[in-house]
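Handout, section B. The chain below has 245 residues.
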Amino acid sequence: MPPLSLHVSRGCRGMMRPALSCIRPSAALRHPPRPAISDCILIFVRAPEAGRVKTRLAAEIGAGAALRVYRRLAEHAVAEARAVSASVALRIHFTPADEAPAVRRWLGGGAEYVPQTGGDLGARMHAAFEAAFAAGHRRVVIIGSDLPGLTAGLLRDAFHRLDHHPVVLGPARDGGYYLLGLRQMVPPIFRDIAWSTGEVFAATVERLAALGITPALLPEMADVDVAADLPDGWRAWAREGAEAA
């Protein structure tokens, strides 16, 4: 334990026995450093605007209906992330960079809002992980914002597996991955990957194998890109809401 540090107020200096009211603890004692939060969840979102989100889905069910689906999925991801634990930090990386007020109003407080950096998806994820580790987080997980089946329990499992593995991956049914968890930076998995293709997961596992890393794997999960990916009843719900808006 560090030695007790006290300061005597300037007006009381020179007194043989300063009154207790003249003695105050040092700034370090009055404002002790906050303990670092070990775990952090990263989520990428785009400001909700019809015609700018879920464009493949919008081509099938309409821009307004696709916007409703997008908002519901992103809100679900944020809610499940918040439900993991009060001691898990949440960093929401958004785009466009000038939409911070709108995104904050949409998704609420209790999170740090960070503009996404430039570059492809790999470069943006690399920057997000790097910033989280630089902030002092030791286990960092990034998740997709289009996962109807995402649960807080699955996220807790991902953090638990990071206690025993350097990398955790959640494979998506379309050949990508919906979750990536790291204990430290692994730069090669963010470079020279054909993002938004069915080869992302396999290419990432191959890249990790070349580094001598075997990732822990979570259960496979479907994300939502096209109408066929929607859970039962969502298409009608989205269209009805869009028509009523």
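Note. The beta strands are 6-8, 23-25, 39-46, 88-95, 112-115, 139-143, 167-171, 177-182, 216-217. Compare this with the example in section A.
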